[in-house]
Amino acid sequence: MKKTLVLCTILFSIFAFSQEKSGAKQFWKNLQQQCGKSFEGQVTEGTDNDAFRNKKLVMHVRNCDKNTIRIPFFVADDKSRTWVLTYKNDRIELKHDHRHEDGSEDKITQYGGTTTNSGSSTLQFFPADQKTCDLLPNSAANVWWITLDETSFTYNLRRIGSDRLFTVKFDLTKTVPTPSAPWGWKD
């Protein structure tokens, strides 16, 4: 009886500990460790005529609040894109904030999705949400995902039911100089 009680206590402790550290929470904590740093990346999947190929790609984990992380994504001199991640109720939301050079919002902005489960510490999936479907009907089948480990951050897009796949991989082992503010931001 004592062995069973001890075993039950150990299993409960392990279960309780694992509940405190959900995949989303661990992912969030790991991403926050990159705050303030900038990294160069490269397209690893995508069409040959992709507008991002052969251009300098830089992500800057620029702003980290308790529940929001903003990551500007620069394509050469184009500073129009920011990935906005929001943590709420053990889920993570990804939005794409697109701006014009004067800082005003692009007409195609704030699209993305929210994870449907807590995911893992290294992988989060974001299926297109209703706002995205309304804004961009062809994107209803979009799924974005981000992978994160000690050496790399990848941003991915797949349009389900098509050959469309885009992946850009950033090397987290080498920081690069911090770029100036993205469009619509101030230093």
From TrEMBL:
Residues 1-18 form the signal peptide. Keywords: Signal. This is Secreted protein. The keyword Signal applies. It comes from Flavobacterium pygoscelis.
